[in-house]
Amino acid sequence: MKKLIPELIIISLVTVVLLVCINEYAPAPLVERTEQVMGTYATITIIERDTTRANLALDAAFEELTRIEGLMSLYNASSEVALLNRNGTNWTTLSPGTIYVLKRADYYSRISNGSFDITCNPLLDLWMVKAKKETRTPTPDEIEEARELVGYQHLVIDEDQKRAKFDKEGMSITLGGIAKGYAVDRACEKLLEAGINHALVNIGGDIRAIGDKNGVPWEVALQNPRNKEEYITIIKLDNESVATSGDYERYFFLDGRIHHILNPKTGYSAEECISVTVITPNCIDADALATAVFVMGPEEGKALLDELGIKGLIISADKQVIKSAVFQ
Q1: Domain ranges of the chain
Q2: Contact yes or no for 32/44 (Cβ under 8 A)
Q3: Phi, psi (5° rounding) for residue 215?
Protein backbone atom coordinates (compact mmCIF):
# COMPACT_ATOMS: atom_id res chain seq x y z
CA MET A 1 0.00 0.00 0.00
CA LYS A 2 2.85 2.38 0.88
CA LYS A 3 4.45 1.58 -2.47
CA LEU A 4 1.19 2.20 -4.30
CA ILE A 5 0.74 5.76 -2.96
CA PRO A 6 3.88 7.22 -4.64
CA GLU A 7 2.86 5.52 -7.90
CA LEU A 8 -0.59 7.10 -7.71
CA ILE A 9 0.99 10.49 -7.01
CA ILE A 10 3.23 10.12 -10.08
CA ILE A 11 0.29 9.10 -12.25
CA SER A 12 -1.72 12.11 -10.99
CA LEU A 13 1.16 14.50 -11.71
CA VAL A 14 1.63 13.09 -15.20
CA THR A 15 -2.10 13.48 -15.84
CA VAL A 16 -2.02 17.10 -14.68
CA VAL A 17 1.00 17.85 -16.90
CA LEU A 18 -0.71 16.25 -19.89
CA LEU A 19 -3.89 18.24 -19.30
CA VAL A 20 -1.89 21.47 -19.02
CA CYS A 21 -0.04 20.68 -22.26
CA ILE A 22 -3.25 19.78 -24.08
CA ASN A 23 -4.92 23.00 -22.90
CA GLU A 24 -1.88 25.09 -23.87
CA TYR A 25 -1.72 23.78 -27.42
CA ALA A 26 -5.44 23.38 -28.05
CA PRO A 27 -7.05 26.01 -30.29
CA ALA A 28 -8.28 29.07 -28.37
CA PRO A 29 -12.08 29.23 -28.14
CA LEU A 30 -14.15 31.40 -30.45
CA VAL A 31 -16.35 34.03 -28.78
CA GLU A 32 -18.88 35.68 -31.06
CA ARG A 33 -21.71 38.18 -30.77
CA THR A 34 -24.16 39.68 -33.29
CA GLU A 35 -26.24 42.82 -32.76
CA GLN A 36 -28.31 45.10 -34.95
CA VAL A 37 -26.67 48.47 -35.45
CA MET A 38 -26.40 51.17 -38.13
CA GLY A 39 -29.32 49.71 -40.08
CA THR A 40 -27.66 46.30 -40.47
CA TYR A 41 -26.14 43.48 -38.45
CA ALA A 42 -22.72 43.63 -36.83
CA THR A 43 -20.89 40.42 -35.94
CA ILE A 44 -17.68 40.44 -33.93
CA THR A 45 -15.71 37.22 -33.61
CA ILE A 46 -12.87 36.94 -31.10
CA ILE A 47 -10.29 34.17 -30.62
CA GLU A 48 -9.29 34.35 -26.94
CA ARG A 49 -8.65 31.85 -24.15
CA ASP A 50 -9.83 34.29 -21.50
CA THR A 51 -13.56 34.36 -22.29
CA THR A 52 -14.21 36.96 -19.60
CA ARG A 53 -11.77 39.31 -21.30
CA ALA A 54 -13.37 38.52 -24.66
CA ASN A 55 -16.86 39.35 -23.46
CA LEU A 56 -15.74 42.59 -21.83
CA ALA A 57 -14.04 43.53 -25.11
CA LEU A 58 -17.26 42.77 -27.00
CA ASP A 59 -19.17 45.02 -24.61
CA ALA A 60 -16.75 47.88 -25.26
CA ALA A 61 -16.80 47.40 -29.04
CA PHE A 62 -20.59 47.33 -29.32
CA GLU A 63 -20.91 50.34 -27.03
CA GLU A 64 -18.62 52.19 -29.44
CA LEU A 65 -20.75 51.16 -32.42
CA THR A 66 -23.87 52.44 -30.69
CA ARG A 67 -22.10 55.72 -29.90
CA ILE A 68 -21.05 56.20 -33.53
CA GLU A 69 -24.55 55.44 -34.77
CA GLY A 70 -25.82 58.13 -32.42
CA LEU A 71 -23.43 60.62 -34.00
CA MET A 72 -23.70 59.76 -37.68
CA SER A 73 -27.14 58.29 -38.35
CA LEU A 74 -29.12 60.19 -40.96
CA TYR A 75 -32.36 58.97 -39.39
CA ASN A 76 -31.67 59.94 -35.77
CA ALA A 77 -32.95 63.50 -35.34
CA SER A 78 -30.47 64.15 -32.53
CA SER A 79 -27.39 62.94 -34.43
CA GLU A 80 -24.65 65.33 -35.46
CA VAL A 81 -25.30 64.56 -39.12
CA ALA A 82 -29.00 65.41 -38.76
CA LEU A 83 -28.12 68.59 -36.89
CA LEU A 84 -25.64 69.64 -39.59
CA ASN A 85 -28.28 69.04 -42.26
CA ARG A 86 -30.83 71.13 -40.37
CA ASN A 87 -28.43 73.99 -39.64
CA GLY A 88 -27.54 74.37 -43.29
CA THR A 89 -25.38 77.45 -43.77
CA ASN A 90 -24.97 77.96 -40.02
CA TRP A 91 -22.02 76.41 -38.20
CA THR A 92 -22.56 73.09 -36.40
CA THR A 93 -20.12 72.00 -33.72
CA LEU A 94 -19.06 68.39 -34.26
CA SER A 95 -17.16 65.73 -32.36
CA PRO A 96 -13.59 64.86 -33.42
CA GLY A 97 -14.78 61.54 -34.86
CA THR A 98 -17.35 63.18 -37.13
CA ILE A 99 -14.83 65.78 -38.27
CA TYR A 100 -12.38 62.97 -39.07
CA VAL A 101 -14.96 61.16 -41.20
CA LEU A 102 -15.88 64.37 -43.04
CA LYS A 103 -12.22 65.04 -43.79
CA ARG A 104 -11.66 61.50 -45.10
CA ALA A 105 -14.80 61.84 -47.23
CA ASP A 106 -13.46 65.13 -48.63
CA TYR A 107 -10.16 63.42 -49.48
CA TYR A 108 -11.89 60.66 -51.44
CA SER A 109 -14.13 63.18 -53.17
CA ARG A 110 -11.06 65.07 -54.38
CA ILE A 111 -9.03 62.07 -55.59
CA SER A 112 -12.07 60.58 -57.35
CA ASN A 113 -12.96 63.90 -58.99
CA GLY A 114 -16.30 63.98 -57.17
CA SER A 115 -17.36 60.39 -57.86
CA PHE A 116 -17.50 59.86 -54.11
CA ASP A 117 -19.64 62.62 -52.61
CA ILE A 118 -21.40 62.58 -49.25
CA THR A 119 -23.52 65.58 -50.31
CA CYS A 120 -25.48 63.36 -52.73
CA ASN A 121 -28.28 63.00 -50.16
CA PRO A 122 -30.77 65.15 -52.17
CA LEU A 123 -30.36 62.71 -55.06
CA LEU A 124 -30.82 59.74 -52.75
CA ASP A 125 -34.01 61.28 -51.39
CA LEU A 126 -35.28 61.85 -54.92
CA TRP A 127 -34.64 58.30 -56.13
CA MET A 128 -34.74 56.01 -53.10
CA VAL A 129 -37.62 57.76 -51.31
CA LYS A 130 -39.76 59.86 -53.66
CA ALA A 131 -39.41 57.87 -56.88
CA LYS A 132 -39.83 54.56 -55.08
CA LYS A 133 -42.91 55.81 -53.24
CA GLU A 134 -44.52 57.38 -56.30
CA THR A 135 -43.40 54.52 -58.62
CA ARG A 136 -42.31 56.95 -61.32
CA THR A 137 -39.03 58.06 -62.80
CA PRO A 138 -38.07 61.60 -61.77
CA THR A 139 -38.24 64.18 -64.52
CA PRO A 140 -35.02 65.67 -65.93
CA ASP A 141 -35.90 68.94 -64.19
CA GLU A 142 -36.28 67.18 -60.83
CA ILE A 143 -32.95 65.43 -61.28
CA GLU A 144 -31.19 68.66 -62.24
CA GLU A 145 -32.76 70.46 -59.28
CA ALA A 146 -31.39 67.80 -56.92
CA ARG A 147 -27.98 67.85 -58.63
CA GLU A 148 -27.76 71.58 -57.97
CA LEU A 149 -27.70 70.71 -54.25
CA VAL A 150 -24.82 68.26 -54.64
CA GLY A 151 -21.16 69.20 -54.47
CA TYR A 152 -18.57 68.30 -51.86
CA GLN A 153 -16.85 71.67 -52.42
CA HIS A 154 -19.83 73.37 -50.77
CA LEU A 155 -19.33 71.58 -47.44
CA VAL A 156 -17.08 73.80 -45.35
CA ILE A 157 -15.10 71.94 -42.68
CA ASP A 158 -13.32 73.92 -39.97
CA GLU A 159 -11.04 71.27 -38.49
CA ASP A 160 -9.45 73.62 -35.94
CA GLN A 161 -12.76 74.75 -34.48
CA LYS A 162 -14.37 71.30 -34.94
CA ARG A 163 -17.34 72.59 -36.89
CA ALA A 164 -18.89 72.44 -40.36
CA LYS A 165 -21.54 74.11 -42.50
CA PHE A 166 -22.77 74.36 -46.09
CA ASP A 167 -22.23 77.42 -48.22
CA LYS A 168 -25.44 76.75 -50.15
CA GLU A 169 -28.97 76.44 -48.74
CA GLY A 170 -30.84 73.15 -49.11
CA MET A 171 -27.81 70.86 -49.08
CA SER A 172 -27.46 67.77 -46.88
CA ILE A 173 -25.09 64.86 -46.37
CA THR A 174 -25.27 61.13 -45.81
CA LEU A 175 -22.38 59.09 -44.45
CA GLY A 176 -23.79 55.80 -45.73
CA GLY A 177 -20.72 55.18 -47.90
CA ILE A 178 -18.09 55.71 -45.20
CA ALA A 179 -19.48 55.57 -41.65
CA LYS A 180 -19.67 51.78 -41.45
CA GLY A 181 -16.01 51.51 -42.37
CA TYR A 182 -15.13 54.02 -39.68
CA ALA A 183 -17.25 52.11 -37.16
CA VAL A 184 -15.41 48.87 -38.00
CA ASP A 185 -12.09 50.60 -37.37
CA ARG A 186 -13.26 52.03 -34.05
CA ALA A 187 -14.56 48.63 -32.91
CA CYS A 188 -11.17 47.12 -33.74
CA GLU A 189 -9.41 49.83 -31.76
CA LYS A 190 -11.58 49.02 -28.73
CA LEU A 191 -10.72 45.33 -29.07
CA LEU A 192 -7.01 46.08 -29.26
CA GLU A 193 -7.25 48.36 -26.22
CA ALA A 194 -8.85 45.46 -24.34
CA GLY A 195 -5.91 43.19 -25.15
CA ILE A 196 -7.55 41.22 -27.96
CA ASN A 197 -5.03 40.15 -30.60
CA HIS A 198 -7.18 37.98 -32.89
CA ALA A 199 -10.62 39.05 -34.10
CA LEU A 200 -12.86 39.71 -37.07
CA VAL A 201 -15.31 42.63 -37.18
CA ASN A 202 -18.10 42.56 -39.79
CA ILE A 203 -20.67 45.33 -40.11
CA GLY A 204 -22.98 44.65 -43.03
CA GLY A 205 -20.14 43.29 -45.16
CA ASP A 206 -17.53 45.88 -44.19
CA ILE A 207 -14.89 43.68 -42.58
CA ARG A 208 -11.57 44.06 -40.78
CA ALA A 209 -9.31 41.32 -39.45
CA ILE A 210 -7.01 41.50 -36.45
CA GLY A 211 -4.31 38.83 -36.20
CA ASP A 212 -5.33 35.37 -37.36
CA LYS A 213 -7.77 32.53 -36.66
CA ASN A 214 -5.80 30.06 -34.55
CA GLY A 215 -2.77 30.22 -36.79
CA VAL A 216 -4.45 30.54 -40.18
CA PRO A 217 -5.56 33.73 -41.96
CA TRP A 218 -9.10 35.03 -41.63
CA GLU A 219 -10.91 34.20 -44.86
CA VAL A 220 -13.76 36.06 -46.56
CA ALA A 221 -15.69 34.62 -49.50
CA LEU A 222 -16.40 37.12 -52.27
CA GLN A 223 -19.96 36.43 -53.35
CA ASN A 224 -21.08 36.28 -56.96
CA PRO A 225 -23.35 39.37 -57.12
CA ARG A 226 -25.74 37.64 -59.51
CA ASN A 227 -25.82 34.26 -57.74
CA LYS A 228 -25.72 34.24 -53.94
CA GLU A 229 -24.93 30.51 -53.87
CA GLU A 230 -21.63 31.03 -55.72
CA TYR A 231 -18.45 32.84 -54.79
CA ILE A 232 -15.80 34.33 -57.05
CA THR A 233 -12.76 33.98 -54.83
CA ILE A 234 -11.62 33.58 -51.24
CA ILE A 235 -9.84 36.60 -49.78
CA LYS A 236 -7.29 35.97 -47.05
CA LEU A 237 -6.90 38.96 -44.75
CA ASP A 238 -3.57 39.78 -43.10
CA ASN A 239 -4.52 42.51 -40.62
CA GLU A 240 -6.51 44.06 -43.47
CA SER A 241 -9.98 45.32 -44.26
CA VAL A 242 -12.32 44.54 -47.12
CA ALA A 243 -15.45 46.32 -48.33
CA THR A 244 -17.71 45.75 -51.32
CA SER A 245 -20.11 48.12 -53.08
CA GLY A 246 -22.69 46.59 -55.40
CA ASP A 247 -25.88 47.33 -57.28
CA TYR A 248 -27.55 44.37 -55.54
CA GLU A 249 -27.49 45.81 -51.98
CA ARG A 250 -30.37 48.32 -52.11
CA TYR A 251 -32.38 48.46 -55.29
CA PHE A 252 -35.81 48.38 -56.90
CA PHE A 253 -37.06 48.20 -60.47
CA LEU A 254 -38.47 51.24 -62.24
CA ASP A 255 -37.75 51.32 -65.98
CA GLY A 256 -34.71 49.21 -65.09
CA ARG A 257 -32.70 48.56 -61.94
CA ILE A 258 -32.50 51.58 -59.64
CA HIS A 259 -29.91 51.27 -56.88
CA HIS A 260 -28.51 53.48 -54.14
CA ILE A 261 -25.03 54.12 -55.58
CA LEU A 262 -25.70 57.28 -57.51
CA ASN A 263 -23.41 59.14 -59.86
CA PRO A 264 -23.33 62.75 -58.61
CA LYS A 265 -22.38 63.96 -62.08
CA THR A 266 -25.34 62.42 -63.92
CA GLY A 267 -27.93 62.20 -61.15
CA TYR A 268 -28.68 58.57 -62.04
CA SER A 269 -27.58 55.20 -60.61
CA ALA A 270 -24.02 54.37 -61.64
CA GLU A 271 -24.21 51.81 -64.43
CA GLU A 272 -20.70 50.67 -65.39
CA CYS A 273 -20.13 48.18 -62.55
CA ILE A 274 -21.99 45.37 -60.82
CA SER A 275 -19.70 45.30 -57.79
CA VAL A 276 -16.36 46.60 -56.52
CA THR A 277 -14.32 45.05 -53.72
CA VAL A 278 -11.40 46.91 -52.16
CA ILE A 279 -8.80 45.73 -49.62
CA THR A 280 -6.94 48.25 -47.44
CA PRO A 281 -5.38 48.34 -43.95
CA ASN A 282 -8.22 50.49 -42.51
CA CYS A 283 -11.87 49.84 -43.26
CA ILE A 284 -12.87 53.49 -43.66
CA ASP A 285 -10.65 53.63 -46.74
CA ALA A 286 -11.96 50.38 -48.22
CA ASP A 287 -15.54 51.55 -47.67
CA ALA A 288 -15.11 54.92 -49.39
CA LEU A 289 -12.91 53.60 -52.20
CA ALA A 290 -15.32 50.80 -53.09
CA THR A 291 -18.05 53.38 -53.67
CA ALA A 292 -15.75 55.79 -55.50
CA VAL A 293 -14.46 53.13 -57.89
CA PHE A 294 -17.99 51.80 -58.50
CA VAL A 295 -19.12 55.25 -59.65
CA MET A 296 -15.94 55.92 -61.67
CA GLY A 297 -16.34 52.70 -63.64
CA PRO A 298 -13.88 49.91 -64.48
CA GLU A 299 -11.32 51.88 -66.48
CA GLU A 300 -11.01 55.00 -64.34
CA GLY A 301 -11.59 53.04 -61.15
CA LYS A 302 -8.79 50.58 -61.84
CA ALA A 303 -6.49 53.48 -62.74
CA LEU A 304 -7.17 55.07 -59.35
CA LEU A 305 -6.56 51.80 -57.49
CA ASP A 306 -3.30 51.29 -59.38
CA GLU A 307 -2.19 54.84 -58.70
CA LEU A 308 -2.78 54.33 -54.97
CA GLY A 309 -1.29 50.81 -54.96
CA ILE A 310 -4.53 49.37 -53.56
CA LYS A 311 -5.87 45.84 -54.01
CA GLY A 312 -9.25 45.79 -55.70
CA LEU A 313 -11.53 43.61 -57.83
CA ILE A 314 -14.11 45.09 -60.17
CA ILE A 315 -16.98 43.26 -61.85
CA SER A 316 -18.08 45.35 -64.80
CA ALA A 317 -21.63 45.68 -66.10
CA ASP A 318 -20.78 43.13 -68.82
CA LYS A 319 -19.58 40.72 -66.09
CA GLN A 320 -15.87 41.06 -66.78
CA VAL A 321 -13.62 40.55 -63.73
CA ILE A 322 -10.96 43.25 -63.54
CA LYS A 323 -8.23 43.22 -60.91
CA SER A 324 -5.93 46.01 -59.84
CA ALA A 325 -2.21 45.53 -60.42
CA VAL A 326 -1.48 44.44 -56.83
CA PHE A 327 -4.52 42.20 -56.37
CA GLN A 328 -3.53 38.53 -56.01
Answers
A1: 28-74+176-210
A2: yes
A3: 95, -5
